[in-house]
């Protein structure tokens, strides 16, 4: 198997090294793992692409490339440049430092990379490691992802539906819980949650020269979400697996809208 990996934390992020180990085991001794990741951190860029300017790409080692662009740019670079003679069989994005559950999903460059791969007709999985008091101070905060990443991906490849041939094909968003590997309770199929009492916001500050700037800041990550959703499963010790599509249509409102307009 030929696997392309990317992330949004940057080419030197520890989570990418964890993902490389996971991908290498999935690919097997006769497989290949190719890395095309952002040269610099791209957290929060979502599914953006560098449409209005070129993206510089540099080869850092065997099957290892850094691109000055977003995760979606990196996926495009991998498919149409780095691996142009043999497309990947699978695209993995992550392992993100921090959760991409609930509303974080909408901002996530990690999810954006997987989404772009799905739009290109490839099976794709986004993987993120929830942080919390039980794992943030571990020698390896990615312990849950490292310990359960291979089994999770294999379960999806072997048993999940991939919707081959659909206009907007499925991809999967995986979040590992904020606990040590030994305390992971299993996997749960989940929907995307919503943290009702928190949101992104901005905080003003001033530079030493007196200029005013705004920092974007996130809200509390341990706010409860509804049962059966991603963050709720994570906070209960489970790996959440959420099937997703790039189709943003609110299908449940089409009938009512037709009646209202027609």
From TrEMBL:
Domain (Survival protein SurE-like phosphatase/nucleotidase): residue spans on this chain: 3-196
Record-linked Gene3D superfamilies: Survival protein SurE-like phosphatase/nucleotidase (3.40.1210.10)
Keywords recorded for this protein, A-Z: Cytoplasm, Hydrolase, Metal-binding, Nucleotide-binding
Swiss-Prot/TrEMBL cofactor(s): a divalent metal cation
Record bears the keyword Nucleotidyltransferase: no
UniProt-annotated location(s): Cytoplasm
Reactions listed under catalytic activity: a ribonucleoside 5'-phosphate + H2O = a ribonucleoside + phosphate
One Pfam family matching this protein: SurE
EC number of the protein: 3.1.3.5
Highest taxon above the source species: Bacteria
Cellular component terms (Gene Ontology): cytoplasm
Residues the record lists as binding a divalent metal cation: 8-9, 43, 96
Main location: cytoplasm
InterPro entries per UniProt: SurE (IPR030048), SurE-like_Pase/nucleotidase (IPR002828), SurE-like_sf (IPR036523)
Enzyme class: hydrolase
Keyword Cytoplasm: yes
GO molecular function: 5'-nucleotidase activity; metal ion binding; nucleotide binding
Cofactor note text: Binds 1 divalent metal cation per subunit.
PANTHER family: 5'-NUCLEOTIDASE SURE, PHOSPHATASE, PUTATIVE (AFU_ORTHOLOGUE AFUA_4G01070)-RELATED
Family: Belongs to the SurE nucleotidase family.
Function: Nucleotidase that shows phosphatase activity on nucleoside 5'-monophosphates.
Annotated protein name in UniProt: 5'-nucleotidase SurE
Biological source species: Salibaculum griseiflavum
């Amino acid at each position: 198997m030929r696997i392309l990996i990317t992330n949004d934390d940057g080419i030197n992020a520890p989570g990418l090294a964890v993902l490389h180990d996971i991908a290498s085991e999935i690919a097997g001794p006769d497989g290949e793992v190719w890395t095309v990741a952002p040269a610099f951190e791209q957290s929060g860029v979502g599914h953006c692409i560098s449409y209005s300017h070129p993206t510089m790409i540099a080869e850092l080692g065997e099957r290892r490339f850094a691109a000055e662009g977003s995760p979606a740019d990196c996926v495009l670079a991998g498919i149409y440049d780095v691996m142009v003679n043999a497309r990947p069989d699978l695209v993995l994005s992550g392992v993100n430092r921090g959760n991409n559950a609930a509303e974080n999903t909408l901002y996530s460059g990690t999810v954006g990379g997987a989404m772009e791969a799905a739009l290109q007709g490839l099976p794709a999985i986004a993987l993120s490691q929830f942080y919390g008091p039980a794992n943030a101070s571990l020698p390896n905060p990615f312990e849950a992802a490292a310990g359960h990443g291979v089994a999770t991906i294999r379960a999806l490849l072997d048993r999940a539906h991939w919707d081959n041939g659909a206009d907007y094909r499925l991809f999967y968003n995986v979040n590992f819980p904020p606990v040590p590997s030994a305390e992971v309770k299993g996997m749960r199929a989940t929907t995307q949650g919503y943290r009702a009492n928190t949101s992104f916001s901005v905080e003003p500050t001033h530079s030493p020269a007196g200029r005013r700037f705004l920092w974007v800041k996130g809200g509390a990550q341990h706010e409860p979400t509804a049962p059966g959703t991603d963050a709720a499963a994570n906070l209960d010790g489970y790996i959440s697996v959420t099937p997703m599509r790039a189709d943003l249509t609110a299908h449940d409102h089409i009938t009512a809208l037709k009646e209202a307009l027609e």
